[in-house]
Every structure is written in structure tokens, then in C-alpha cells.
């Protein structure tokens, strides 16, 4: 998405993109519209590890992740040894595929935003759970081609939606109250 927007294929991109300094070299970001904390998503019966430190010590443990995403880099640099080629990281094309691999036992851990993770846990009927403390905080923003004149009006809209409570109401509706599959 970042490459496509930076090349002008799209005017705007919004797919849970973390605002990071190195990405600002390719695209312009809006102000943050959402703050996320990453947690460890595991099967409901997981007892071999309880946090990032004990997972790192569990040498047979595998992490499912999408290459190039913040959870991938958190897995590499915060949970494991800093080696992006570490064979303990199994890569998948989509986040949904990582969760499916977790459910089937092909991996032991997936890093996820706490709110999304709660949704997966609530829908799993005990099949999944979140463990450990947050592994970092990240802000999400919309992305634009460098110099885009869309940044200012989008930032104004974000400010307005925060000020009037709309963002808070939408977050509550879709991330706290919403029950997947119902």
C-alpha cells in the first residue's frame, strides 16, 4: 500500500498503517486517527509460555506474521533475536491466514492489536486468548503521496471527529460492543 500510494496509484491509503519516521520518507501521513497496542494472541489452551520472554525461551515456538508489518518487526526485534530471517517466524500473505495457522497449530503465536485481538478472542468460544503485557504502542494514520493537498482537509476531519466524540462512539461500536459473527 505504501509503495502504491507513493507512486500515485491511489490518492489515499488506510489499512492500519503505522506512522513511522522511515515511512515518512516515502509518503505523507495524516494526524493519528487511532492508537494501537500489540498483544500476544495464542490458542485458548496455551500453557507453554505466558509472555514475550518465556516465548523467546520456548525454542520450538513459532510466530505467524505478515512480512513488512509492525507485528512482524515486533516479533523480530522485541520477542526474538533481531534476525529477520529467523526460522521461528512463519510468514503469511494476510493477517487472517496467520490466525488460521494459529488455530490449526501451525504456529504458536500471532501478534495483534489488542482491540482486534479481543474481537478474535470473543468470537473463538474459548479457542483463543490474549496473554502478556502490551508489546508496544503505535499510531495509525492515512497515507498520501508526498505533497498531497488532501492531508490538511483529512486532518481537519480527524480533529472534528475526535472533538465531537464520533471516533470514540465508532471505536466503542465496532471494537468493543461488536461481536463477530452475530
The 3D shape can be described as globular
Fill in the CATH topology of the largest domain.
D-Maltodextrin-Binding Protein, domain 2
* N- to C-terminal distance: 30 Å
Return the domain count.
2
Strand content bin: 15-25%
SSE pattern: HEEHEHEHEHEEEHH
Tell me how many strands there are.
8
Tally of contiguous helical segments: 7
What share of the residues lie within helices? Answer: 25-40%
Q: What is the level 1 CATH name of the largest domain?
A: Alpha Beta
Report the CATH superfamily of the largest domain: Periplasmic binding protein-like II
CATH architecture of the largest domain: 3-Layer(aba) Sandwich
* Average residue pLDDT: 92
Secondary structure category = alpha/beta
Low-confidence stretches: none
Using only C-alpha atoms, the radius of gyration works out to: 18 Å
- Multimeric organization: single chain
Largest pleated sheet: 6 strands, mixed
